[in-house]
Specification:
Elements (H helix, E strand, L loop, with lengths): L2 H13 L8 E5 L6 H4 L1 E7 L17 E7 L2 E7 L10 H14 L3 E10 L9 E9 L27 H13 L4 E8 L8 H9 L4 E3 L3 H9 L4 E10 L10 H25 L3
Parallel strand pairs: 1-4, 1-5, 5-9, 6-7, 7-8
Antiparallel strand pairs: 2-3, 3-4, 5-8, 6-9
């Protein structure tokens, strides 16, 4: 079955659940799923029910689509995302973004957990992504291009929407909330990096490192869907003072910082005009 047909089937199933005219899509990253609890939910769908949707294999990704009201807007939140290290193809990882676009969302907000290699960006703080470096294997646009989905060679000179970044920055400043701006580098994982790898990633221009987000951003740009992404900094990756870190530590830090992230996104959604 063609990708375009799969997208239409998945979107039709979701629309049949009384979901209509969503305005904003949200992808919730590792340890950052509680924003979904703030939504006045009208519909909750398990991923396994949606045709052609992958299933999240990570225990702290719940695998639910939540539709409802947040900050006076109609939103769809994806509580659980997919990663290359789970064995999924790039098309599978980004399929939900295609479906959100088909459903009519006007903006996409992506969140993730990331490790900081920039000494100025501390554990527990937030960073809005201004640009990225893609070290993931493969590309979600490789293979057959469907012109109805986007251009064969989409421009990536401004992958993150400037207006969204500016509004998030203004809101954070008004809230007295630290919101850094920087470059995110995406690697496959699932292992964390060595000292030498952290040095390398910093040398090539990255501020933080993670294992997601970039494939979804590529497809959002291919789909002409404005996107912003925010990283929760969960660990500090100074190669000269590197300490062992566990996924439990990362989840704990993400959970603590989630309060600030949730407040920021809520206020953004409340204030944005379409």
């Amino acid at each position: 079955m063609e990708l375009t047909d799969q997208i239409k089937q998945a979107a039709a199933y979701i629309q049949n659940k009384k979901i209509s005219e969503p305005q904003i899509g949200i992808i919730l990253g590792t340890g950052i799923g509680k924003l979904g609890d703030k939504i006045q939910a009208d519909v909750i769908i398990n991923y396994e029910e949606i045709p052609h949707f992958p299933l999240s294999t990570i225990e702290f990704h719940s695998g639910k689509l939540i539709y409802g009201n947040l900050g006076g807007k109609k939103v769809i939140a994806l509580q659980g995302r997919f990663h290359a290290y789970e064995g999924y193809t790039m098309q599978q990882i980004t399929f939900p973004v295609r479906v959100l676009k088909q459903l009519g969302v006007r903006e996409l907000i992506i969140t993730n957990a990331a490790g900081s290699m920039n000494p100025a960006m501390k554990k527990g703080e937030l960073m809005v992504i201004e640009d990225h470096i893609n070290l993931q294997p493969g590309n979600p646009l490789a293979g057959k291009n469907y012109n109805e989905l986007g251009s064969r060679f989409p421009d990536m000179s401004k992958p993150y929407n400037h207006s969204m970044i500016q509004k998030l920055s203004d809101i954070a400043a008004h809230m007295n909330l630290t919101l850094h701006k920087g470059v995110y580098v995406s690697v496959q994982g699932p292992n964390l990096e060595t000292k030498a790898e952290y040095r390398y990633l910093r040398m090539i221009g990255a501020d933080v490192v993670g294992m997601s987000t970039v494939p979804e951003v590529i497809v959002a740009n291919h789909s002409s869907l404005p996107v912003a992404a925010i990283s929760v900094i969960t660990d500090e990756c100074d190669p000269e003072n590197l300490k062992p870190v566990s996924i439990a530590d990362i989840i704990e830090t993400a959970g603590k910082a989630e309060v600030f992230l949730t407040s920021l996104i809520y206020k953004y959604i409340e204030e944005v005009n379409f």
